[in-house]
Amino acid sequence: MKKLKNNKSKEDKERKTNKRGHMTKEERFLIEKMLKAGNVQKKIASTLERGRSTVCEEIKRNTVDGEYTAQKAQRKSYMSQYNKKKDCFKVSMDTELYNHVVERLENKISPEEISSETGNKKNTLPYASAKAIRKFISKRRPDLEVNLFWNRNKTKSGKKRAKGKYLQDPDRKWVEKRYDDFNLFDLEYGHWEGDFIVSKHNSFVLLVLVERSAKYVMIDILPNRKNTLVNERISSMLKNYKVKSLTLDNDIAFQNWKGLEKLLNCNIYFTHPYHSWEKGLVENMNRWIREFVPKKSDISKIEMKKVVDIQNWLNNKPRVILDGYSSYELMMFEEKNYVVSSILLEFPNVLNSYLVVG
User: In the chain, is it the N or the C terminus that has fewer CB atoms within a 10 Å radius of its CB?
Assistant: First the structure.
């Protein structure tokens, strides 16, 4: 028991000594002298009252040509810190990059997406990391923080629906079977996910379809979720696109899924009940769409032109997961073998005028 306490006190002491910040010039001078005298790293760490890992990392990182010297170690450490700060303020120091970042942020493009765009081969701008862009926002332009996603969307989610019976069908194919039917399911183009955004005021819904590889989204307004209408509209939306599979949930609107399979000439797969993450891409897309169509909105009053504007903005913005390319660019390449460039579209207005209070 006493031995365990001693070990714990040593660990606590080492943890505290590792929080003392950067090595000083004097400490590096002492490390150099003790190394030349043949002292082991444990002895050096004990003398400096530093953790062994701290001393080990210092020697490993700042050794030059197989020899550790205090002067070179100090210079190397200084340059490392200088370059870090220089990278963080890169946006402020380059006028062209500054204007580009501000324009993108004002159009609600995230720092990660801007970073992936600047690192893209098609872009001539210098690369700026997401950390550098966030540093620029916090230190130089805090007024731009309102454009960041979670600052724009602070509303809490609504009431969760109670669990009930779901549609039973022994012939349904579950999501795990996708990987048996398609060896390269996660890499292939042509696998789609579908879902609804509903209105609490009437039967009108938004039908959302997203392609998994290019992240290309299509949105349509439906007056109801009757099986026939849903099948016809999905078939109409996808008729000019490559479709290898479609993943849906257990909504009763998809009861006639066998008829939809014939219309699309592809397999339809279903998520397990209450496992919405099994079609996480379309769920994430719904979150983005909800920014423009808040909960309590009356979908029946929304104009189709507004929906098209939302769809075009989502498809033309640079995506981190696509290495800075847009969904539209990848879709055109996969569908038509065309190399195109997206243009920056104006951020669509949030449709607050369609909110129904009470």
Answer: C
